[in-house]
Amino acid sequence: MKPLEQNVIEDLVVAASRVRAAAHVPYSKFRVGAALMDEDGEVYTGCNVENASYGLSVCAERHAVAAAVAAGASRFHALVVFTNASPPVSPCGACRQVLSEFGNFPVILANSAGERVQTSVEELLPLAFSAADLR
Ligand code: THU
Description:
Layout (H helix, E strand, L loop, with lengths): L5 H15 L12 E6 L4 E5 L12 H11 L5 E8 L9 H8 L5 E6 L4 E5 H4 L11
Parallel strand pairs: 3-4
Antiparallel strand pairs: 1-2, 1-3, 4-5
The structure holds tetrahydrodeoxyuridine.
């Protein structure tokens, strides 16, 4: 997968950093922001939203996917996951499976210290279970 355009990465970092401020994290205090660009250049964002019933907490990445799908988008150009952790965090297993539903695209792990790690959905979840397995 070829490297993403630098301006796309930085635009998504700004969007993910902004939405991260809205995270509802009274339990972990660990804020995550995600920004997902579709193939038309539209950007959809999500933050993690925790719950007193801990298992109902939802990650930033899945909220960004839901926002995109609700707006009619399903073909993605890139995702940025933004925290203040070093090294930058990568999506949990559940989010990897949800991302893989929408094919393979670049995923950039980023943090407030300026670290950027580029990977991809397929690299994060090799041999994924997919719609093809249901045929
Ligand atoms: N979390 C995310 O939102 N995305 C990730 O990639 C890793 C973990 C959230 C879930 C929970 O609200 C908090 O971070 C701590 O696990």
